[in-house]
Amino acid sequence: MEELYLGIETSCDDTSCAVYASERGVVIHRTAAQLDHGKYGGVVPEIASRSHMRTLFPLYETVMEDSGVPLSSLAGIGVTNGPGLTGSLLVGLSFAKALAYGSGVPLAGIHHIEGHILANALEGPLELPALVLVVSGGHTQLVAMERIGRYEVIGSTRDDAAGEAFDKIGKLLALPFPGGPSIEQAARGGNAAAYDFPRGLRRSGGCDFSFSGLKTAVRLKVESFDELTPQIVADVAASAQEAIVDSLIEKSLFAAQETRARRLYLAGGVAANSRLREALEERLAASGVKVSWPRPEYCTDNAAMIACAASHHIKAGRVDGLDLNSFARGNLSSWAA
Predict the structure, then answer these.
(1) Overall pTM surpassing 0.90 (yes/no)
(2) What order do you get walking across the sheet with 140-147 strand by strand?
C-alpha cells in the first residue's frame, strides 16, 4: 500500500510544504518565497521568522486541500530541525509537533543537508554508493554516501560557502539578491578569462574548499575601477563564477579519485547553476564519473526533499518525540545501522 508523507521546510527564508508518495514521488509541492530581503542585501532572520508565522498555516491548508489527503491518513511528518536560522526553524518545528500531537502521526526531524542530498531521489532510486557535492548559501561539502542514512563528510569549506561567495560578490557588483542567479545571468555577457581570480586550496591535496580569498580578490578588483560599466560587471561576474566552478570541480575530481566513485550527485541551491552543471558533467565524464542533479525547483530549499527523507527515516523506525529540538549548526551524521 502506498504511504504518504508531509514535509515542512522553514530553515531560512522560504516557507515550503509538500506531500510525497513512496511509490509515485511528489504529489504536491508549494513554496512561498520571501521577497523583502533584496533591499537589505541578505536574509534578515527576524523578518524571515515572522514571515513563516504568517505563511505556514495557510500554505499547509492549501497543500492538504489540493492533495486531497487527510492528515490522519499520512504515514509520517518530516520537518527540518536544523541547521538553519533558529527562529525560522522553530516556527516549522513547532507547527509539525502540533500536527503530530493532534493526529498521532509519526514525526521525524530531518537534517537540512540530508534533505538536499535526497532531493536526488525524488524522481527515481539513487545509484549507490555515490559521492555528493552539496553547494548552497550556507554549506559546501563533499559527502561519501554508502547508502541512504550512511554518510561521511570528506570535505568542507574552511570559510565561506560557495553560495555565500556568490551573494557577497553579487552585492559588490550591485546585482540583485540573491547573488547566484544574478551573477549567472550577468556572466552570460562576460569573458570568463578577463580576470585571473584565485582558486582556494588548489594545491592542498585534500577535499576542503576555501572562497574567502576569492571574495577579497573580487572586492579589490572592483575597488580598482573608477566606474562599474556593464561590461566590467559582466567580465567580473563571469571570471568569479568560473573561479568558483573550477574550485568545485577540482575538489570533486580529487574526491572521486580518492573514493573511486563512479557516480556524483549535485545538491543545494548552487546546483541550479547551469555553468556548474555543464562543466562538472564534461570534466567528470572524462574520468568515467556520471553526474546528475535534481530539477531546479528541488535544488533550492523545498519541503519535497524533507518529506522524501522522512519516508526513509520513518520506514527504518527512526521516529522523534515532542522533545525534538532545533539546532542552528550541526554536522550531517549517519543514522542507519
Answers:
(1) yes
(2) 150-156, 140-147, 130-135, 263-267, 290-292
